[in-house]
Write a structure and sequence with these properties.
The protein has 139 residues and is mainly alpha-helical. The protein has eight helices and no strands. The longest helix has 25 residues, at 114-138.
Length: 139
């Protein structure tokens, strides 16, 4: 177990996970693509209010744990980068190889609109390239 954590700055992973959550909040709020995302997902304002009233703490905790795992694995790759630009490049290729490719299934098999695919996958592109750059210079 010690080998897994050697050389990785856990504080950096924690901070970029918070940054990833902030990017997600901006991305899916009315600041950027929230209205379009809601329309494409067939979610109404009433649905959002119902979810808020029900409590979203558990969902945010699970999402943050997911962000921690994603950014820790990204840090394992970026550990060898050494520069912000190379860290961003690694983030891009992880997005291209794993997110852009696997998330296309939502269009092909779930009949989700392609525009929704773009909104969702580009969110991860932005989060991964920013996180990759920061991790490369911090860890």
């Amino acid at each position: 177990m010690a080998y897994i954590f050697s050389g990785i700055n856990i504080l950096a992973v924690f901070v970029v996970s918070i940054i990833s959550m902030i990017i997600g909040w901006l991305w899916y709020s009315n600041v950027l693509f929230g209205k379009t995302w809601m329309r494409l997902m067939n979610i109404s304002k009433k649905d959002i209010e119902k979810a808020k009233n029900k409590g979203m703490t558990k969902s945010y905790i699970i999402m943050f744990i997911s962000a921690l795992i994603m950014n820790y694995v990204l840090a394992l790759f970026v550990d060898y980068a050494g520069s912000f630009a190379l860290g961003m490049r690694i983030g891009f290729f992880i997005w291209l190889g794993f997110f852009a490719t696997t998330m296309i299934g939502s269009v092909l098999w779930e009949n989700k609109p392609f525009k929704l695919y773009l909104i969702n996958t580009f969110h991860y592109l932005v989060a991964l390239i920013i996180s990759g750059g920061i991790l490369a210079i911090w860890i």
